[in-house]
Write a structure and sequence with these properties.
It is a single chain. By secondary structure, the chain is of the alpha+beta class. The protein has 15 helices and four strands. A hairpin with a 2-residue loop joins β2 and β3. The protein starts with a helix and ends in a 17-residue tail after the last helix.
C-alpha cells in the first residue's frame, strides 16, 4: 500500500474536510446556542399493597400494579387531557400556539412527560413498585408545577378506577341477586302449582295408593262374595215359602239384624226380671235398648209398607225386602269402589311421568337456590371490597417525593451537541473524499500507467498550476468557508424565528430516526 500517495490525496482534499467539519461544527454550535434550556422536575410514587390481609377481607379490584399504571398512563396521555393541561398551565406562549397545531402540541407534551415504572413482581420475586414522574419545561417552576399536577391526576385516576370497579362489582351482584331471586320465586311457584295440580299422583304417596288399591280389590272381592250369599239366601227363602204354601216360618237368621237383636234383648230382659226389679240399673238399660230397637224395627216395617192402604206384608216379603236393600247397598258400594280403583290406577300410572317432571322442577329450584346463595355471598364480598376501596384500605398509590423546581437545566447537553456537529461534519467529509476517489478514473501515478498500458514509465510529471490559479482556488475556498460560517447560523436563526422553533423541529426529525447514542443529547428533554 502506497501510504504517501493516500496522504497526498488527503492533503489535496483537505479543503473539503475543513469545509464540512466547519459546516458541521457551526451547525452544532448554532443549534446548541439556540435550543432553549430544559428543566426536568421529578416526583416519585410507590404502590402500596392492601392494608387489610386477604384472609380477613379481600378487595374486589384484582389488577396488577403494572397493568393499573399502564392504564392510568394512557388516560393521562390522552389528547384531551394534554390539551387541557397545556392551556391551564400556559406551557406555550401565544406565538408558539399560533405556530403549533393541536397535533404538534399533543406530540410535544407526550415527549415532555415521563412516567417510568420500576420494581414489581418479576420471576417470582416481589419488589416495591416505584413510579417516577418527570416533566420537561423551559422554566423550573413550570416543570415542577406540571409534574405535581400529573401526580395528582395519577392519584385521582387510581382512586376513581378502583372505586368504579368495586362499585360496578357491587351493582352487578345486586342485579344478579335480584334476578336470581325472581327466578327462585318463579321456580318455587311452578313447583308448588305442579304439586297442587297433581297432589293425588305424587311419588311420595305411591305406596299408600298401591295399598289402597289392594285394599279396594280385596273389598270388592268381599262384596262379590256377600252378594252371592244374599242371592243364595233369597233363593232359599223363596224355595222354603213355596214348599210350605206361604206358611213357612221365617228362621231367625232370616230376620234383620235389628230384629234378631231385639228378640235377644227381650228374652234377656224376661229372664232377668225373675231375679231383678224393674228399678235395677241393668234392667233400665235393657229396657232403653229394647225401646230403641223396637223403634228401628218399626221404621223398617214402615219403610217396606209405608201406606196404610197397602196390604200387610208377609214375613217373607219383609226378609226379601231386607235382602234387596242389602244388595242395593252392596252394589252401590261396589260401583264406588270400582270408580275409586280406576282413579287410583290412573294416578299410579301417571306417577312416573309426574316423578320425572317433579324431579326436574326440584332440580331447577335447587340450582337456582344454589346460584342465589352464591350470588348473595358474592354480593357480601363485593360490598366488603367496596368499603375497603372507599376507605382507601386496598392497594393504593402514595407520594414519596413531590416534584421541586430544579436548580439547573437538564438539557440540552451543549457539549455533546457540539461534538455531534463536529463528528457529523468529519464523517461527511471522509465520505465525500472516498466517493470522489472512487469515481475518479484518471491516471495520477506510475502504477496507474503500468496497470492500464502494461509499460513501465521512465519518469512522471504532475500537473503544474499557475500562481493565478492557486490564488483563485484559495479565494474560492475562503469564500465558501465564510459563507458557511455566516450562512449556517443565520439560516438556523431564520428557521427558528420565521418557520418553527428549532427544538420542536429537531424533535420531529429525531422522532423519525432510530435511537443513536450520539444523538441522545439532541432530543428534547434528554439528559
Amino acid at each position: 500500500m502506497d501510504i504517501r500517495f493516500y496522504l497526498s490525496l488527503l492533503l489535496r482534499r483537505l479543503h473539503y474536510i475543513l469545509l464540512l467539519v466547519i459546516l458541521g461544527t457551526a451547525l452544532g454550535a448554532t443549534i446548541a446556542l439556540i435550543l432553549p434550556p430544559r428543566y426536568v422536575a421529578q416526583a416519585r410514587l410507590v404502590v402500596e399493597s392492601q392494608q387489610i390481609p386477604d384472609e380477613l377481607a379481600a378487595s374486589t379490584v384484582q389488577v396488577e400494579a403494572n397493568e393499573q399504571l399502564q392504564i392510568i398512563r394512557q388516560r393521562i396521555l390522552a389528547r384531551g387531557t394534554l390539551l387541557d393541561m397545556a392551556d391551564s398551565f400556559r406551557i406555550y406562549t401565544a406565538e408558539e400556539r399560533a405556530d403549533l397545531s393541536p397535533d404538534d402540541i399533543v406530540s410535544d407534551m407526550r415527549s415532555r412527560i415521563g412516567i417510568e415504572t420500576t420494581g414489581g413482581s418479576r420471576r417470582n420475586r416481589s419488589n416495591a413498585t416505584l413510579v417516577d414522574v418527570t416533566f420537561s419545561a423551559a422554566r423550573a417552576e413550570l416543570s415542577s408545577a406540571v409534574a405535581n399536577q400529573i401526580v395528582t391526576l395519577i392519584l385521582e385516576e387510581n382512586v376513581e378506577m378502583r372505586t368504579t370497579v368495586s362499585g360496578q362489582t357491587v351493582d352487578f351482584f345486586e342485579g344478579e341477586v335480584e334476578r336470581l331471586g325472581q327466578e327462585l320465586a318463579q321456580s318455587s311457584a311452578r313447583l308448588t302449582l305442579f304439586q297442587e295440580e297433581n297432589r293425588d299422583a305424587l311419588p311420595e304417596s305411591l305406596e299408600f295408593r298401591r295399598s289402597q288399591l289392594l285394599s279396594a280389590q280385596e273389598r270388592l272381592i268381599d262384596i262379590g262374595r256377600e252378594l252371592d250369599q244374599l242371592a243364595d239366601r233369597r233363593r232359599n227363602l223363596e224355595a222354603l215359602y213355596d214348599q210350605t204354601n206361604g206358611q213357612g216360618v221365617i228362621a231367625p237368621e232370616a230376620q234383620t239384624a235389628e230384629a234378631r237383636e231385639l228378640q235377644r234383648l227381650q228374652e234377656r230382659y224376661a229372664s232377668s226380671s225373675a231375679v231383678m226389679s224393674d228399678a235395677n240399673p241393668r234392667q233400665r238399660v235393657l229396657r232403653q235398648q229394647i225401646e230403641a230397637l223396637e223403634e228401628i224395627v218399626a221404621n223398617q216395617v214402615n219403610t217396606i209398607a209405608p201406606d196404610a192402604s197397602t196390604p200387610a206384608l208377609s214375613p217373607l216379603d219383609i226378609q226379601i225386602a231386607d235382602i234387596d236393600n242389602q244388595v242395593a247397598f252392596l252394589e252401590q258400594r261396589q260401583t264406588q269402589i270400582t270408580a275409586q280403583m280406576e282413579e287410583l290406577a290412573r294416578t299410579i300410572e301417571a306417577t312416573p311421568n309426574n316423578a320425572v317432571t317433579l324431579g326436574g322442577l326440584q332440580r331447577d329450584l335447587e340450582n337456582t337456590r344454589s346460584q342465589y346463595d352464591r350470588a348473595v355471598e358474592a354480593r357480601a364480598r363485593a360490598e366488603t371490597g367496596d368499603a375497603i376501596e372507599a376507605l382507601s384500605k386496598g392497594q393504593r398509590i402514595s407520594i414519596i417525593e413531590n416534584a421541586v423546581a430544579p436548580n439547573a437545566p437538564n438539557s440540552p447537553n451543549r457539549p455533546k451537541i457540539l461534538l455531534a456537529g463536529f463528528g457529523g461534519g468529519l464523517m461527511a467529509a471522509l465520505t465525500l473524499i472516498v466517493l470522489l476517489e472512487l469515481l475518479n478514473t484518471s491516471v495520477r501515478r506510475a502504477a496507474d500507467i503500468e496497470r492500464g498500458l502494461g509499460i513501465t514509465p521512465i519518469g512522471t510529471l504532475s500537473y503544474m498550476r499557475t500562481r493565478r490559479e492557486v490564488i483563485g482556488r484559495r479565494l474560492l475556498i475562503g469564500f465558501v468557508l465564510l459563507v458557511v460560517i455566516l450562512g449556517v447560523p443565520a439560516g438556523v436563526w431564520a428557521v427558528d424565528t420565521y418557520y418553527k422553533p428549532v427544538d420542536l423541529l429537531l424533535q420531529s426529525i429525531l422522532d423519525r430516526l432510530p435511537d443513536i447514542p450520539l444523538l441522545t443529547g439532541l432530543r428534547i428533554g434528554g439528559s
